[in-house]
Amino acid sequence: MKGILITITMPVLLLTLFSLAGCGNNNDGRSAGNDSNYDLTQVSNKADVSQEIANQAKRTLLKNKEVIGARGVNTSDQLLIAIEVRQMDRLRLKKLEKKFTTALQKKFKDKKVTVSTDKKIYLELDELEGQLQTEDVSKKKLQKQTDRIKKLISDQA
């Protein structure tokens, strides 16, 4: 009788535990887009500089079929965006960078726009987005970080 009880309750218990494990939350508070084919995070800003312009730019870029992921931040005068493109579009990276930079410069005339397709820059901006979300990042620290990332972009060019 005891063996039958264990045989019945064990799968039910495991199923319950696995179901609850899937209900974890995103620790840094960034929300991902609803479409699982695209990688977009909306940064709600606790920082001194609103990140709404970066969020708008990411949404704009993700409307293009070539783009599957976008990370970005903005300061009072700069907009840094890194994009991830589909595998079949990787042969046209420089062309896509130029196309998207031009489009964003037209949309955000008061910002110095930099677009990168480099994976390292993508990861750096992802980390900076996380810091903006979870920490109180000052304007000075944000400017310092964006200058450092911009230097990385120019060193790779």
Give me a quick take on this structure:
By secondary structure, the chain is of the alpha/beta class. Helices cover 51% and strands 17% of the residues.
How many helical elements? 5
Strand content: 15-25%
> What sequence of helices (H) and strands (E) makes up the elements?
HEEHEEHEHH
Q: Span between N and C termini?
A: 72 Å
Largest sheet: 5 strands, mixed
The strand count comes to 5
Task: Give the fraction of residues assigned to helices.
Answer: 40-55%
- Give the structural class: alpha/beta
**Lateral arrangement of strands in the main beta sheet:** 1-2-3-4-5
Which ranges are low-confidence, i.e. pLDDT below 50, for 5 or more consecutive residues?
A: 25-34
Radius of gyration, rounded?
A: 20 Å
- Average predicted local confidence, pLDDT: 82
What does the overall shape look like?
elongated
Structure description:
The N and C termini lie far apart (72 Å). Mean pLDDT is 82; it is low at 25-34. Helix 2 (52-62) links the parallel strand 2 and strand 3 (67-74). This protein has a five-stranded mixed β-sheet, sandwiched between helices. The longest helix is centred in the first third of the chain and has 20 residues, at 2-21. 29% of the residues are buried. The protein is an alpha/beta fold. It contains five helices and five strands, in the order αββαββαβαα.
